[in-house]
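Predicting holo structure, adenosine-5'-diphosphate bound.
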Amino acid sequence: MAAEPLLQVRDVARRFGGIVALDGVSLDVPAGIVFGLIGPNGSGKTTLLNIITGFVRADRGTVSFDGRPIRGLPSYRIARLGLSRTFQSSRCPQRMTVMENMLLAAANQSGESLGAAILQFRRVRAEERANLERAREILATVNLAAKVDELAGNLSGGQKKLLSLAQALMSEPKLILLDEPVAGVNPILVQEIGSVIRSLCDAGRNFLIVEHNMSFIRATCDRVAVLDTGRLIAEGEPDEVLARENVLRAYLARPTAEAPA
Ligand SMILES: Nc1ncnc2c1ncn2[C@@H]1O[C@H](COP(=O)(O)OP(=O)(O)O)[C@@H](O)[C@H]1O
Ligand SMILES: [Mg+2]
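Done. Tokens:
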């Protein structure tokens, strides 16, 4: 018998007014792999991540994580169960240092609002030596050790993505959801982010990644699922899935997105 998937999505649907963003999506994300979720612009990828992490409510369907139903739970409770995420655009306070942003992430994950976390920042800083140690270790694993005292605003686009990943790792998550981790990142750093993710996966972290960069997907993901207009149209190994005719057609129908070929 196959092991229980780490994340199980069943028949999830969501409309925004007249727009059907998700139209009955079912998906199993097993443990131990890097799982890619791709699809043309507007196909529902971010909405699905938002539903999984409790930022948007589903109209119907179920989501289970690590064997527990999580649909309808507030986002901070889902995060505490071990499901951590990054956002499409960086939300780091730009005038705080890399280390301060890491400590802020730790404070946030304890369920405080961002505002409360900032207000209590000095006290938090005094209290959390363990977090400081942990943050240093994580920054080293994502190749940001030299940037500890740099202002977040001075990092390159790719380094900001690495910082978001590092922040997501602060809570020791069982599954990390990354929304476009290499969008707008230069090719050298794209490769670096890919190999950081691969080594984290080898070290036991699990990933669900939404991304448009197909060479990154091929190089980084063990398995990939394709959304098109709110429906899952393909799933399997990246090279095989990206060569399927219906997948190519879905991308060709929306020429703004990067096509798989
Ligand atoms: N908060 C919202 N209000 C209205 N429409 C939305 C909202 N969020 C997403 N949509 C619509 O739902 C569809 C899917 O969007 P999204 O999940 O962001 O797609 P993707 O991440 O694949 O580009 C799009 O048509 C988008 O315009
Ligand atoms: Mg999106």
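The longest strand covers residues 19-29.
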